[in-house]
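Response regulator protein VraR
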Amino acid sequence: MTNIIILDDHPLVRQGIRTIVSSSPLIHVLGEAASTREALLLLEQFTPDIILVDLNLGSDNGLDAIQAVRRAGHTCKFMILTSSITRSELQLAQSQQIEGICLKEAFPEDLLYAIEVVSRGRKYYDPDLMSSLLEDTSADQENILSELTPKELEVLLALGKGYSNKEIATALFITEFTVKKHVSQVLAKLDLSDRTQAALYALSKGLVQFELQR
């Protein structure tokens, strides 16, 4: 069972989100909050697994709210729900290790899937946001994939599918040590900071067909 709190300043939106997530027998809504202050008060009573956070909380900002919750010592996961987000906000969310970002325009089943992914300890960034997050900054980057060896490209595709090093090693018939070397080379050549960025890159470039795994 995944216990969640909904943090959104619009009552109708909160009700809509509650209706969607309550349709899953694996999700339980502990409570709702309209502001950072209300969320902190709820956290004095409950210990959620995930907090669904609106990016724009009236006079508050969702990213600031998340930082406030963390400073208070709470260790739950966070998923941002938003209708729009800037490139800088996306990058800031990633730098703060936010576990999930989902568009409010997503289908109900997409939101449920996103919560499932985050609850399992993985990150979920809405695929429709990938291209914005990883938009090329120069024409030279269009051909950057040509710098990867065939094996490094295979590793990049596997990262895009969310495979662990062990799973990549099994799929490509190589050792985990070799996988780590390939991952390091991929990150260096594509100027990416971690494997999450590599996965987002693969998705944004259409290298991996995004499929819901149930």
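thats it. The mean pLDDT is 86. The chain has ten helices and eight strands. bye
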